[in-house]
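[job 0417] fold request received: Glucose-1-phosphate adenylyltransferase
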Amino acid sequence: MAKEMIAMLLAGGQGSRLYALTQRLAKPAVPFGGKYRIIDFPLSNCVNSGIDTVGILTQYQPMVLNEYIGNGQPWDLDRLIGGVHVLPPYQKASGSDWYKGTANAIYQNIPFIERYNPKYVIILSGDQICKQDYSDFLRFHKEKGAEFSVAVMEVPWEEASRFGLMVTDENDKITAFQEKPKEPKSNLASMGIYIFNWDVLKKYLIEDEADPESENDFGKNVIPSLLRDGRDMYAYHFSGYWKDVGTISSLWEANMEVLDPEHSGINLFEDDWKIYSRNSGKTGHRILDTGVVENSMVTDGCRIAGHVKHSILFSGVSVEEGAEIEDAVVMGGTVIKKGASVKHCIVAENVVIGENAVVGEMPKDGAGSVATIGSGVYIGDGAKVGPAAMIDQNVKDGEEQW
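[job 0417] inference complete; emitting structure tokens
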């Protein structure tokens, strides 16, 4: 059963900065790009990179995520030996614990990793939009003779203090690590994607768990310990598209960038590195005589009788006659009734927006706050929801929310 490298995917995040979108949903299960969920990206990267064994560590609101992953068949991860495994916290003879931090989550699953006796372990984040070849990353790790490697991206210097930063020499060897420093010494931001030699990772996980002062976190504890001990640590430069969609604005921006693949760097329409997802099983979409669609993604099961411009509509969305949708992300099963205006916003799943209601507005200077409607919300006829509103409860007919 030995595997050269297995993946451990951290998918237990609450995603609190997504507010209404993650009240009842784990962040990796948040819909993205018309037909996907965020977790589709690391899972597809794994299978495209030749990794056939993935442990998915879940914790917060896991029901939808667990159901979506199923047996891993959409990503070709329904394997007899290996495949995909959902790994929630569980009761042990010594008691039970929630995952206390990123390092502790991996520590609690040492028995799972040892089943496959890997030489390398890649640790992934379940809440990023990124198309990356992990086999190229592993090749770099081997060539450097590394014990630990981290994927990094250059960020603008004025934004560097928002990230964990790797300081390197001319050979990409890591000489220092800064966690969100006020005075950055580097602009190489950690992507939170690591490759470890398994024997090294196991040693440091056990030591970290034994330290009562530790926060059991890779960035705060494990990586500084590796540096302290002079381990062979290297930074792998990644130059493709990568975005942490941890805020409403970044999630909206990433969805809008899907509609401009020639300039944004994210292309979901190419065949040589597909992003796989679970099929909704709905019928094809239909654009009626009164329907107009401009530069938008309209997925299966949609019915369009209104005007849709520069927007993403997930499966089963209904847009009635006279409704106007612009610069919007509208998630599955939502109904937008006659005459409604939905602009510059994110609308979650199974929402009803009543006749002549107004949700969001186009910013006058090209930038502005994104209105957000949580799943299952009913926006009454003629109601008005302002451009910065965050709605997670029903809004009565004619009511204003600014």
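[job 0417] notes: The mean pLDDT is 93. The first strand starts at residue 5 and ends at 10.
[job 0417] exit 0
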